[in-house]
Amino acid sequence: MTDAAQNYEFDPQVTLSLSKKLQLLGLIIDFSGALIFAMPLFKSRKEVEEASKVYIGVSPYQLRTRERDRKLTICGLSVIMVGFALQAFALFV
User: Fold this and answer.
1) What is the pTM of this model?
2) Among 37, 65, 36, 69, which residue's Cα sits nearest to residue 49?
């Protein structure tokens, strides 16, 4: 072994640059946004049964569900955009 290899000590503290930290944070935020965006897809059996009922006129359940899904979609997309912006910003830091 060379002298340099014998003197090498493993440092368990891994230090990340600011750019890498921002990229990691952006990825985590993107993943969170994707989960929020997908929440309307995970419905319980009761919710599916309520959505399947036939009503004369407008279904109050459908109105509530569509409004909730719309809000979750907007929130999820917004969070994904913030995560993407952080990753893009990390390229210039």
Assistant:
1) 0.74
2) 65
Q: What is the largest CA-CA distance in the chain?
A: 85
Other beta carbons within 10 angstroms of residue 29's beta carbon come to 19
**Domain definitions of the chain by residue range:** 16-90
Tell me the C-alpha distance between 77 and 26, whole Å: 14
Mean pLDDT within 20-45 = 93
Burial class of residue 84, CB neighbours in 10 A (0-12, 13-18, 19+): middle
CA angle 66, 63, 43 (to 5 degrees): 50
Query: Could you report the per-residue pLDDT of 46-90, keeping only the tens digit for each?
Result: 888 888 888 888 888 888 899 999 999 999 999 999 999 999 999
